[in-house]
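R.M. (postdoc): so does anyone remember the format we settled on? I'll just put the structure tokens first.
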């Protein structure tokens, strides 16, 4: 049974808010080798990201994972500062209130950043080869069957939360609850006993024909 999560802790609990803000993550689309995604600066823990993404898929993007990936991954020039309640467009008001505590905040990008040398920022792409070195704690891969949740510091892959999961479900933020899938054991087959081969008879010398006189 799904449970309603507590209201999103923002100004009411500044210490917890500061902790949540420091959790970095990425949103990605799957590729043949792994995934290709974009950096998200704030609120990266599963308890914050999964309800928002599940509801956005169901209502704003009407079940179209390709359109969702286009907006969240491909349509960003640099990266996301924060994903906001605009992703809940079309959701029932009761659900929005349950997920946000009645607050509203916009999605914001990192396009305003300026590099130390004054040059414009580069796109903050995250892949399976770079995630461990990019100071991100969590990853969310938008797959056709659901959201793969990756605890980056502990695993290269993670379990998948189906798209039909209730967004009000309580999700744990502890990495131990998001282990990498265990590969199935290799199938071993017992070799079929081969019938014993009959030894070939040794070739007998052909009798010599006596020479005619």
């Amino acid at each position: 049974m799904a449970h309603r999560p507590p209201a999103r802790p923002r100004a009411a609990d500044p210490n917890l808010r500061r902790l949540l803000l420091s959790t970095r993550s990425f949103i990605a689309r799957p590729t043949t080798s792994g995934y290709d995604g974009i950096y998200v600066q704030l609120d990266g823990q599963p308890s914050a990201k999964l309800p928002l993404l599940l509801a956005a898929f169901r209502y704003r993007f009407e079940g179209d994972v390709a359109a969702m990936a286009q907006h969240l991954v491909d349509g960003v020039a640099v990266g996301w500062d924060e994903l906001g309640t605009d992703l809940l467009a079309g959701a029932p008001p009761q659900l929005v209130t349950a997920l946000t505590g009645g607050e509203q905040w916009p999605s914001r990008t990192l396009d305003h950043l300026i590099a130390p040398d004054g040059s414009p920022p580069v796109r903050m792409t995250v892949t399976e080869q770079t995630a461990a070195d990019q100071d991100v704690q969590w990853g969310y891969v938008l797959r056709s069957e659901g959201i793969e949740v990756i605890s980056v510091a502990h695993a290269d892959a993670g379990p998948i939360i189906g798209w039909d999961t209730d967004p009000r479900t309580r999700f744990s933020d502890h990495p131990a609850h998001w282990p990498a899938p265990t590969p199935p054991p290799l199938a071993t087959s017992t070799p079929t006993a081969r019938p014993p081969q009959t030894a070939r008879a040794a070739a007998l010398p052909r009798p010599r024909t006596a020479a005619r006189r």
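R.M.: ...and that's the designed sequence above, right after the tokens. Also worth knowing: Residues 24-174 form one domain. Confidence is low (pLDDT under 50) at residues 1-19, 198-205.
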